[in-house]
UniProtKB/TrEMBL annotation:
UniProtKB keywords: Membrane, Transmembrane, Transmembrane helix
PANTHER family: LD22376P
Domain Heparan-alpha-glucosaminide N-acetyltransferase catalytic: 7-227
Regions that span the bilayer: 12-31, 51-69, 85-103, 115-133, 140-158, 195-215, 227-246, 252-276, 288-312, 332-357
Protein name: Heparan-alpha-glucosaminide N-acetyltransferase catalytic domain-containing protein
Length: 365
């Protein structure tokens, strides 16, 4: 079945809104005053915030399917694509390390793992899988990885303790980080973006590839939407059942977490595709499209701008501290003020994103 390749407004907008949400939850006015839904779950369980990163990784897979289907149809040799894929993955990985180093550039405490690093690995794996493996084998591989990860995490005792544990810093993934992950780790003795937990994150990218396969098929539009939402519902239900023996946990990127968030990706994409691309309800999508046009660049820019908006001091206080003092002083709840500052920071990042979009400058990192 030859795929039909068209640009989807729903996908572009979803990617942009996801980046905006990542900035919103990463930069509150104060980490001491945040509404609970805007925080990650401390360990087992999940909040709405825990859906954001896997949702973006899911869309990396969808985007890979669209981008490389088009190149294959144009007859671009795979050898040339491999080279560009590897170069792009390296650039994303190095950029992630750079963001971890600023502003002090203390190489003795350099963190190798990180958000962009995980995205780069998922992008690399998803791209090579898409170019070389059919969708059925992708599905089998994804399922096999999740089962393998589950069995390893729940049956193999951590060598330093001799028992199976799923506690912070006391689990097989944390032990692997301590043994093999160089540099500083986010939590001291383990890292939420560590080596072993990246394995199920790759499955999130594979789920995106499968969703992209559906959108690229010659099924009629309504059937595509129905397939996406039906598969999403099944994945969520399987994930909830799996959670009874392998808890939902973003830090460990457990198999249940992978299926629930991946299923949510299918559901969200299917609903958005139906509303925006089929029914034509495009009102309100422009903000997402503008953010999504330079999604990674905006994410990097937010990290750089945070040095000013959270580190630059006037009168002995940072800008966010002044903001909190000003608006709590007139009686607003401190949690609300903290969120308002985060919204303001998202709006500030929208300005350069808008300028780039209007000038048709699309930075490919």
């Amino acid at each position: 079945m030859k795929p039909t390749i068209t640009r989807l407004i729903s996908l572009d907008a979803l990617r942009g809104f996801t980046i905006a949400a990542m900035i919103l939850v990463n930069y509150p006015g104060s980490w001491s005053h945040v509404y609970p839904p805007l925080l990650h779950a401390e360990w087992h369980g999940m909040t709405m915030t825990d859906f954001i990163f896997p949702f973006f990784i899911f869309m990396v897979g969808v985007s890979v399917a669209f981008a490389y289907s088009k190149r294959l149809d144009e007859g671009v040799p795979k050898a040339g694509m491999y080279k560009k894929i590897i170069i792009r993955a390296i650039k994303l990985f190095v950029l992630g390390i750079f963001l971890n180093l600023i502003p002090d550039f203390d190489f003795s405490h350099m963190r190798i793992a990180g958000v962009l690093q995980r995205i780069s690995i998922v992008f690399l794996a998803s791209s090579f899988l898409f170019l070389n493996v059919g969708w059925k084998k992708q599905a089998y591989l994804g399922g096999g990885i999740l089962v393998f990860y589950w069995l390893c995490m729940t049956l193999i005792p951590t060598p330093d303790e001799g028992v199976v544990l799923l506690e912070p810093g006391r689990n097989l993934a944390a032990w692997i980080d301590r043994m093999f992950l160089p540099g500083k780790m986010w939590e001291g003795t383990w890292d939420p973006e560590g080596f072993f937990t990246t394995l199920p994150a790759i499955v999130t990218g594979i789920l995106g590839l499968l969703a992209g396969r559906i959108l690229l098929s010659n099924f009629n539009e309504n059937l595509k939407s129905n397939y996406l939402m039906s598969i999403g519902l099944v994945l969520v239900l399987i994930g909830l059942l799996w959670a009874q023996v392998f808890p939902i946990n973003k830090h460990l990127w457990t198999s249940s977490f992978t299926l629930i968030t991946g299923g949510a990706g299918f559901l969200g994409l299917g609903a958005s595709y139906f509303l925006v691309d089929i029914l034509g309800k495009k009102k309100g999508t422009s903000v997402g499209i503008i953010f999504g046009a330079n999604a990674i660049s905006v994410y990097v820019l937010a990290d750089v701008l945070s040095l000013v908006f959270y580190g630059f001091e006037i009168g002995g206080q940072s800008l966010n501290a002044h903001f909190l003092d000003l608006f709590t002083g007139i009686g607003l709840p401190v949690n609300l003020v903290s969120m308002l500052y985060a919204i303001l920071f998202v709006m500030i990042n929208f300005i350069p994103a808008y300028i780039l979009y209007k000038k048709k400058i699309f930075i490919k990192l």
